[in-house]
Amino acid sequence: MEGIEAKTRDEAPKLLMAIRCAKAALLLSSLKSSVSRVFEAANNDEDEEKEKMRREIENLRVELVKERLKIKKIKLCGVMELILQLILVMLISSFHMTLAFDFFLCDDESSFL
Prior knowledge:
This is Retrotransposon-derived protein PEG10, putative. With 113 residues, this protein is mostly helical.
């Protein structure tokens, strides 16, 4: 049962990352279609349609930048978490090593006396 829970905990961040990447891809495709509509509107000389499409393109670009920043923050948090875990493991292992050395050194001195 623990293996399944650990597996789902490991897959949750990957699933969130996949969802964010899919959303970014959707925003990019929407942006491309909006650009093509702006060019069509330019050919038809519809000023109102052009302005509406430009606003839509700017909104999509802002959303895309926000999603990219979220993805970068998630990656940075993951790296920081890994570094902190490594530091914790090193601290704990060095603590145990000093205890072991102290135990063996004290044990050796008593045998010489």
